[in-house]
Amino acid sequence: MSGEILSIILRRIAVAIPLMLLVSVLVFIVLRLIPADPVAMSMPPNATNEDIEALRREMGLHLPIMHQYGIWLGHILEGDLGRSIAFGQPVSKLIGESLPATIELAAFGALFATAIGLPGGILLFRLRGRPSEQAVDVGSTLMMSIPEFLWALFLILVFGVALNLLPFAGRLPPDMTIPRLTGFLLLDCLLTGNLTAFLEAIRHMLLPALALALGTVPLIMRLLRSSLLDVIGEDYVTMARLRGVPERRVINRHALRNALLPTLSLMGVQFGFLFGGTLLVEVIYSYPGLGNLMVEAVRNTDLPIIQGAALIFALAVLTINLAVDVVYIVVNPKLRRAR
Amino acid sequence: MRRRTLIAGLAVGAAAVLAAAPPLAPQAKAAKDSVVIAWQVDPQTWDPNKRTVPVRQSLYKMVYDQLITQAPDIKLEASLATKWSQSADGKTVTLDIRDNAYWHDGTKVTSADVKYTFLERGKAKHKIDLVRIWRNVADIETPTPTRAVIKLNKPMATAIPWLAFLANFVVPKHHVEKVGADGFADKPMGSGPYKVVDYQRNSRIVLEAFDKYWGPKPKIRKVTVLIMKDPSARVAAVQSGRVDFAPDVPIREVGRLDKMAALSGRIFPISRVILLQIRSDKAFADKNVRLAAHHAIDKKSISQALYAGKAVPLSIVAPPGTPGYVKDFQFPYDPAKSKALLAKSGFSTDKPLKIGMASFNGNFPGDYDIARAVVSMWKKVGIEANLQVIEYSKYFELNRGNKLPEATLYSWDNAVGDPEMFTGYLMHPKLPFSAWKDMDVGGRVMKLFGIVDYDKRIQGYKDVAVYASKQGAVMPLLQSVTTWVHKSNLGVVQYNNGWVLPHKWSWK
């Protein structure tokens, strides 16, 4: 099995290289075609046109687009993503500082989506044909229709303001500081042995992670219900029932295993989107992640950060998809043989 | 449609929940020597010389000192420099540096730091805006540790106000040389009232009072700044009592929050102007048309509708309380005169003049709403404006390529209030922030850049500001406002340039 997994990983990497190259070309060219002047907007009020032109030249923005791309790509291959216009710091450093918070948040969001989506799917399936099925269905449609940022605001209003139960700004209370060791706050709390901070970090993560997850939950629920409906008529399920296996066990032990496979595939795709969904959620919850950095960069037309962050987002989606493929192979012996 | 209905329903529900929410929670009561602020932007860099973004200046002022600072009424006052003067030829600025100022590591602030900040950083090729601002510095003499003499190779009439303006903070030579320019952006060290003890980009800043600060000891010993860019989140944070102070709160929310016993809301005008930048050619080459467009705008109504009447209608590009303000000049709202002027040029409501107009949407409070109101007012007199929403960065691209439409709604900050920073930079036809390129008004502005004598210079700007308005070369609309909501028992000091300085605050 490990040989097959290795082969999948290698094949995926072989596809990922041209794909990343394509993403880099697209992002670079599209950004250069936008009629915006990131240089002039960052100038002091008494700047002259000569100052602006000098800075444009210094940044290489006067060169033909493909020439600029060639230089940028050359630097990337050397591990240099360039310097931010607004922050004035290396992009790789800014991304490196922000990425762990986003990974942590997206992982928590994925955990929430799974924890709510899978039982929700089973519930929807169990309620099939009953009047309450409609109510759950309407509820899931509602959840799906609302974008993450609106969920974010709604959760703040309910749990942060009206009930005043949960925090909604940053990752820790104002009077708490944890030294940055890995950038992954939960891990840093554990490494420094600060359990109070660990629990506070989780409290601070609850609302943003939930806001991220709520859009994904109905998709998981619906696909799982539909997959369960597909497998419930299969011979092995009928046989289990004939053997007198209780219905709950029929679903959980026999039907669910196979029904989970397409759901797993969907979850992979959705978790990629979930990573992208961190953009506005992080801004609203003052979360110091890559999404927040990206929004700041877009506001400032900070081309080097936008380019770098777009590449990282693309890489994250490809990595998640690869991980899902591997898990798929591991849990599906049929697929292993087919490959 | 269904999705929109759902979203609208949720928004209404959310508003209802917010309105019905209980007042401040008891656990949110702050310690008497600390404060939590919800701030709207991240500093991006701790190098205060790097960028000239007005909204970040308050953050820098908490940590760094300028040579000259401003009083709440924005008049200049002593800071690191206790005395200053400029020679009659405008080429020498002499500064006496206080001898009781210290960097956060305990080292004394000296004139060598001034020289390093304003001269040597440029020579060391540090990529900072300060180098561009002080491009004409030839040398800085430091005869004693408490005296710095800036020698300029060209007269700089606004050298003194610039020392109190954007990015003009003194930085520690020994520290920047030790950690490097990049390191300094991460490891701030100033001589200001607070030291940075923790900073998480785009999330929070923790500041602690500096015991050797030269000024009065801050009563607020600890400041936590939460970076909350979303206005709804700031509203929620101050309403729930999780923060003590929130700036830039939507106008409609200020009134609602102010009604709560535990909170106070303020809307007040600051030294920022909202104006229509005008092209001197295309449909606006005709002076009658420009004046007609200006007379058609009911600024008072716009202020009432969008800024609770607190935004002061302007007739020139200088607000009350600044040196260039002209009290006795009014450019009246007069739709009848507007129609008559348009008729002279052959336009009417039946045969409207067609122009283009650009506006931001969300760059400053109420921007797009102002633009829509102006378009509607113009329509009533016979001007049909095609309103185009542009991004802030696109504005510069369009202006650089001379592609802006006839009118562009713009906002201009000027914390020091000097008229060169208003009319000068906005009307100088050769500078990048000016849309007006005609040399009649432009030439008059350019001449003022060489005048050093203060009274003569200010009078010159007053005259040219009135002249520009009479020529329709600019359409000043309103003195902009800022908004604050804070706990009622927090005593805050209001600065007319919008500065937020917690070292001047105290709990009641």
Q: What is the strand tally of chain B?
A: 19
Taking all residues together, what is the mean pLDDT of chain A?
Answer: 87
Instruction: Give the terminus-to-terminus CA distance of chain A.
Output: 11 Å
> Which protein chains are joined by the largest interface, and how many residues does each one contribute?
A-B, 63 and 75 residues
Estimate the helix proportion of chain A, in percent.
over 70%
The count of helical stretches of chain B stands at: 16
User: Which structural class fits the helix and strand makeup of chain B?
Assistant: alpha+beta
Key terms:
heterodimer, A: 339 residues, B: 508 residues, four-stranded mixed sheet, 33% helix, globular
What is the topological layout?
The complex is a heterodimer of chains A (339) and B (508).
Chain A: H1 2-33, H2 49-58, H3 65-77, H4 91-126, H5 131-145, H6 148-162, H7 185-191, H8 195-213, H9 217-231, H10 235-242, H11 247-276, H12 278-284, H13 290-299, H14 303-331, H15 333-338
Chain B: H1 2-20, E1 34-39, H2 57-63, E2 68-70, E3 76-78, E4 81-86, E5 92-97, H3 111-123, H4 129-133, E6 137-144, E7 147-152, H5 159-163, H6 173-186, E8 194-200, E9 204-209, E10 222-227, H7 231-239, E11 245-247, H8 251-258, E12 263-278, H9 287-295, H10 299-307, E13 312-313, H11 335-344, E14 353-359, H12 367-381, E15 383-389, H13 392-400, E16 407-413, H14 419-427, H15 439-448, H16 454-470, E17 474-487, E18 490-491, E19 506-507
Parallel strand pairs in B: 1-10, 14-15, 14-16
Antiparallel strand pairs in B: 2-3, 4-5, 5-7, 6-7, 8-9, 9-10, 11-17, 12-16, 12-17, 13-17, 18-19
Helix pairs in contact in B: 9-11, 14-15, 14-16, 15-16
